[in-house]
Known about the structure:
Layout: E1 26-27, E2 30-33, H1 37-48, E3 53-56, E4 72-73, H2 81-114, E5 121-128, H3 135-147, E6 154-156, E7 169-177, H4 180-193, E8 197-199, E9 204-208, E10 214-217, E11 222-224, E12 227-230, E13 246-258, E14 267-270, E15 277-283, E16 285-296, H5 303-317, E17 324-335, E18 341-344, E19 351-355, H6 361-377, H7 384-387, H8 397-410, E20 430-436, E21 439-445, E22 451-455, E23 466-468, E24 473-475, E25 482-484, E26 489-491
Parallel strand pairs: 1-11, 2-3, 2-12, 3-8, 5-14, 12-19
Antiparallel strand pairs: 4-7, 5-7, 6-7, 9-10, 10-11, 13-16, 13-17, 14-15, 15-16, 18-19, 20-21, 21-22, 23-24, 24-25, 25-26
Helix pairs in contact: 1-4, 1-6, 2-3, 2-6
Amino acid sequence: MTLHVxxxxxxxxxxxxxxxxxxxxxxxxxxxxxAGIAGMTSAYLLAKKGYRALVIDDGPVGHGMTxxxxxxxxxxxxxxxxxxxxxxxEDGARLAYRxxxxxxxxxxxxxxxxxxxxxxxxxxxxxxxxxxxxxxxxVREYEAGLRAGVEGLAWADRAPIDALDTGRCLRFPRQGQxxxxxxxxGLARAFEExxxxxxxxxxxxxxxxxxxxxxxxxAGARIGCDAIVVATNSPISDRFAVHTKQAPYTTFAVAxxxxxxSVAKALLWDTLDAYHYVRLKDAEGEVLIVGGEDHKTGxxxxxxxxxxRLELWARERFPMAREVLHRWSGxxxxxxxxxxxxGRDPGADNVYVITGDSGMGMTHGTLGGIxxxxxxxxxxxxxxHLYDPKRKNLKAASTYARENANxxxxxxxxxxxxxxxxxxxxxxxxxxxMRRGLQKIAIYRDEAGALHExxxxxxxxxxxxxxxxxxxxxxxxxxxxxxxxxxEVINGPAIAGLPAVESSGAPPVKPxxxxxxxxxxxxx
Length: 524
């Protein structure tokens, strides 16, 4: 089933074809779960090394979080080089730079080798201060970037924004951008030409590592393999090991039409905590894409306000902007020490995970595929220890404690009243959590007025979900699991949907054709 959410990014007009469902047991050298950039990069590189790989996903290639990215290809790390240096040392910062630079180089090489038409291009990026920003922050980043070996890092008099004098800023040369769905769609075709197999509508419900790894789908198909790659944004292969070390954040984006040639082609980032990021996309005319205004998933209900702030921020700096064409949100996983978790799953032999994109999913996903391929192949790679999911970083202990205290606090929802006192308070097309005795029930009233009632208990670790009006989803505020309006799981770490409960109103009838063919999905 294709799931229903409201967010629709400008990439989604490009449709990647669905592959056939997996209707029988199968065997492969490697089973890759998730057909986003991390999964498809892994599958492609494994196939290039001669492995028989099989990819499964709930939906079409790339239509998970990859379809909701703004697709910046950056060596200008979101969390700053001075923070990477503090947490991982100068050697760690140098490896972080080299790995992200290598990821962009790998994308460029694949585009050229496979002849992919995905709008890939190199361009400069600029890191600038907001009004009243502290210039010392840029100095610290410049000095740390030089120690990390960032090639070409230099001062610029101002960022290329005509309506705003940003003052002195940092220029990062040879960044990149592309169309993410065209790229992963091209990767998928190249992978299949190498003999690889991709199956849509194949939802993994069991992941077993050990001496004889296997994956079981919701349809009952068993996939025997020698190794498993879990590339599902947030891993579904364990319940605790990784999830206590990263936190889910929702980020927002708007796309506005601008006259062609009116905005300089560059990547732009400011230094605010919930920072803003900007790029152009070629379309009919040009489209200015602006993102930011992040919050912890499931822990804010002001998406309209955040979209309004994004639009205002964009119009003040780009007064030529015209109508808003798209508004959407996506989810990023922020790790406690600012680098992704890529490598062997801490809880299972012969299982590998790629997660913790920290706002840099396109490069983290790509270097994730590179690292995992080398580990499966038994080769050494210099970056592997830096991204090892088993790592423990005492310098990040305070962040670990704060994030897990936040998770613990979310369980207090179970003793709080419901959001509404009666089903009558829920309008068509909306949802709310209602208390019924000792239970909390997640109730969605569809556009026809029928009620759909399900347990509000997330099937991962039991937090109470909350209604997300922007995307028409139920979001878990603990570890970021997301479910569509009818309770079907669309983003891990949960594997199972919210169980239905008997409705006190009209019996629920789940529509066979939801009105919009988009979803966050389960892939990175």
